[in-house]
């Protein structure tokens, strides 16, 4: 609140709140925030699910957690590199739309199939592919739609909202897990139940679906490009 009050009064503000009213800046920024919110809600849940004792979890160790999550990071790295070449062939808005579609499919997969480590790994891998494409497309839409001298401010504001989504997601997951716990005979403590994980996957899927709807609206609108911008890279 103090930051907003000060920024509105200074002659040279760090943040330009006029950007938040721009139809070409705000929707892709919200899309990215929702994408990171949905993904980190699920991604940070995986270690708990893998390490919880059976039958409420997989009963794995730290190496098991790594084996489940490593394909996510590998696919994210590879697809992020490939997305740069894809941007040369299709529009930024279409790439964002494709990414959100793939991510939503990944969440739907997790909602229906998450009874084994392999199923969870496949779901996370699909989500990783969608994340990299939607991120590349979303950031390029933002860069192409603002004047060059405001690119740094636009990226800073976008990254701030992304961090909000990344921070809030695990909180949602933690609240849901805390509300749905069960004890296992012979084992000390309580652990999240199947209802907890199912709810987390459904909530994340709904959030991802909301980002898909926004991406669809953005793809139908022509993004006004600043005349000083010559490339999307």
- The coarse silhouette is globular
- How many whole angstroms does the radius of gyration measure? 20 Å
Q: Order of strands in the sheet with the most strands?
A: 1-2
Q: Give the end-to-end Cα distance, rounded to a whole number of Å.
A: 35 Å
Which strand-content bin applies to the residues?
under 5%
Number of strands: 2
Main sheet: strands, sense, barrel:
2 strands, antiparallel
Count of runs of 4 or more consecutive helical residues: 8
**What pattern of helices and strands is seen along the backbone?**
HHHHHHHEEH
| Portion of residues within helices | 55-70%
Average of the residue pLDDT scores: 88
Query: What is the SS-derived class?
Result: mainly alpha
Extract low-pLDDT stretches. 226-233
């Amino acid at each position: 609140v103090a930051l907003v009050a000060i920024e509105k009064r200074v002659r040279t503000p760090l943040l330009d709140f006029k950007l938040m009213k721009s139809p070409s800046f705000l929707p892709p920024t919200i899309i990215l925030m929702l994408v990171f919110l949905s993904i980190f809600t699920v991604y940070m849940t995986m270690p708990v699910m893998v390490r919880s004792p059976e039958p409420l979890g997989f009963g794995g160790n730290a190496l098991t957690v790594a084996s489940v999550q490593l394909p996510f990071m590998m696919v994210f790295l590879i697809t992020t590199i490939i997305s740069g070449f894809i941007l040369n062939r299709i529009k930024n808005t279409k790439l964002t739309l494709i990414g959100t579609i793939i991510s939503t499919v990944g969440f739907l997969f997790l909602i229906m199939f998450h009874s084994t480590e392999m199923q969870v790994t496949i779901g996370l891998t699909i989500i990783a592919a969608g994340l990299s494409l939607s991120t590349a497309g979303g950031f390029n839409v933002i860069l192409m739609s603002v004047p060059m001298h405001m690119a740094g401010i636009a990226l800073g504001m976008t990254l701030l909202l992304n961090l909000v989504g990344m921070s809030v997601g695990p909180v949602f997951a933690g609240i849901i897990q805390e509300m749905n716990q069960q004890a296992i005979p012979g084992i000390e403590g309580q652990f999240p139940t199947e209802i907890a994980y199912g709810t987390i996957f459904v909530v994340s899927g709904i959030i991802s679906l909301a980002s898909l709807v926004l991406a669809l609206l953005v793809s139908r609108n022509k993004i006004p490009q600043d005349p000083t911008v010559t490339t999307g890279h």
